Amino acid sequence: MMVPYGQRVTPDDRTTGARGLMRPRPVDRTVRVIVAALLAVWFALPIVPLLLWMVADRWSFPAPLPTEWGFSGAASAVAQGAVPAFGRSLVLGLVVAAIATPLGAMAARALTKGSVPAPRLVSGILLAPLALPAFVAVMGLTVVLLRARVPGLVAVVILLVAAAIPYTVYTMRVAYAAHDMAYEEEARTLGATRRHVLWRVHLPLVAPGLARAAFLAFLVGWSDYVITVLVGGGTIITLPLLVAGSAAGVGNSAVVAVLSVSAILPPLLLLLVLGRFGRRYPVSNLPGSGSPRSRSAKGFL
C-alpha cells in the first residue's frame, strides 16, 4: 500500500494493506477451480463404468450404455456372501483402528517428548514395516504366531495392527510436533486433575491428528488382502477377497462392480464425516478457570 510522504501509517492501514496483499486474485481462483474440476473428473472416470455395470444385466461392445438393465449383479453378489464379507471387513477395520490409533499416539508422544532412549532406532523399528515387502513381513510374523498357537482371527488382527502402526505413529508425530504443551501446564496450574487435562485439553487439541490416524488405520484393516489370505487361510472371507475372486473369473463384471462400489463407500463416507465434524474442536472450559480459553484445531481436511 502506497502512503504519501509525511503521512503517518496507522495499525488499521497496515492491516488493510496486508489483507489486500493476501486477497486471492481472480486468475488464481479460476486456475484453482479448473484444477479442482479436472481432478474431480479424473477420479470420477473410473467410477462411472462401475455405477453403470451395477445396474446392467448385459453390456456388449460397442454399445455406449448397457443393452439390458437389471440388478442381477447385486443378487449374485449377495448370493456369494457379500453381506457377511462386508461385515467382517468393517469389524476388522474398526478393531484395527481402535487398537493401532492409541498405540501409535502413545508411541508418537513419547518420541516427541524425548522420553525414549535411542529415539532414532525406535522410530526406525516402528517404521520398518513400510520398508519391507508385505509378503516378507507377513511370512516372518506368521511363523512366530503359528508356533505360539495364536488363533487365526487373532493373528490377523495382530498383523493388521502391526501394519497400521507405522501410519499412526507418523501421523501423530506430526500432530505432536505442532502441539503446545503450555495449555496442559496452564490447566494443571489452575488445579485441573490429570483426567480433566486428558479429556478436556489434550484430546481436543490432538483430535484432528487422531482422526487422521484412525482413518489410515481403518483403511489398512478394511482393504487388506495379503494378510487375510496368508494368515486366515481362506477361512476369513472379507470384501477384498470376494472382489479379487470375482475379478479373476470371466463374465462377472456386474458382480465385480457391485463389490467394488461396496468397498469404496465406507472409507468415502468416513472421510466425509471426518471432514464435516472435525473442522473445529475447541478446548473445553477448565474447572476453576476464570475465563474460558480455547484453541480451535484445524480439522481433518
UniProtKB/TrEMBL annotation:
InterPro entries: MetI-like, MetI-like_sf. The keyword Nuclease does not apply. The keyword Cell membrane applies. Keywords: Cell inner membrane, Cell membrane, Membrane, Transmembrane, Transmembrane helix, Transport. Its main location: membrane. This is ABC transporter permease subunit. Pfam families: BPD_transp_1 (PF00528). The chain crosses the membrane at residues 33-56, 90-112, 124-146, 152-176, 197-219, 225-243, 255-277. It is a multi-pass membrane protein. It comes from Microcella daejeonensis. It comes from the Bacteria. GO terms for cellular component: plasma membrane. Residues 1-21 are annotated as: Disordered.
